[in-house]
Amino acid sequence: MQNRLSAYLEKFNILYDYQFGFRKFHSTSLALIKVIDSIYRHLDNHEKTIGGYLDLQKAFNTVNHDILIYKLSIYGIRGTVLSWFKNYSTNRKQFIVLAYAKSDILDITCEFHRVLSWVLYFFHLR
Q1: What DSSP string describes 27-92?
Q2: Structure pTM?
Q3: How many Cβ atoms are within 10 Å of 15's Cβ, its own excluded?
Q4: What separation in angstroms does the CA of 30 have from each of 18, 72, 81, 102, 119?
Q5: What's the angle, vertex CA 11, arms to CA 80 and CA 110, rounded to 5?
């Protein structure tokens, strides 16, 4: 599913140009080169520069499933594929067992499997 969704994103040019991670021919090294080039360009023009960097590793776990499903449909994901995402994201539960203790069973409302997380997260951002 990840390969099909990634191919769809590329084919219809849905991702941002500056989305470097997790894409063919868009390495994080290229992202760094673009940042350095931008800094030098501004410094050459005697402008001040500032950078802010965030670690979005846990951001994948904040995707609201209803919003994501809506956005997937807006970008043309329909039919069987959209149904698959709906089924995958609804009525999921989790609990933790540690030694002899077991937590309550809770609904999972904002998390997807790591394999699909990055693709779905970038849909969510759009």
Answers
A1: -HHHHHHHHHHHHHHHHHTT----------GGGGGG--HHHHHHHHHHTT--HHHHHHHHHHHSS-
A2: 0.57
A3: 19
A4: 10, 28, 32, 46, 19
A5: 50
- Phi/psi of residue 72, each to 5°? -60, -40
Is residue 23 classed exposed, middle or buried when 0-12, 13-18 and 19+ CB atoms within 10 A define those classes?
middle
Model confidence pLDDT, tens digit, residues 55-108: 666 666 677 778 888 888 988 889 998 898 888 777 778 888 998 899 999 887
Return the residue matching tokens 């800094």: 39
C-alpha to C-alpha distance for 68 and 126, rounded to whole angstroms: 10
Tell me the residue type at 30: L
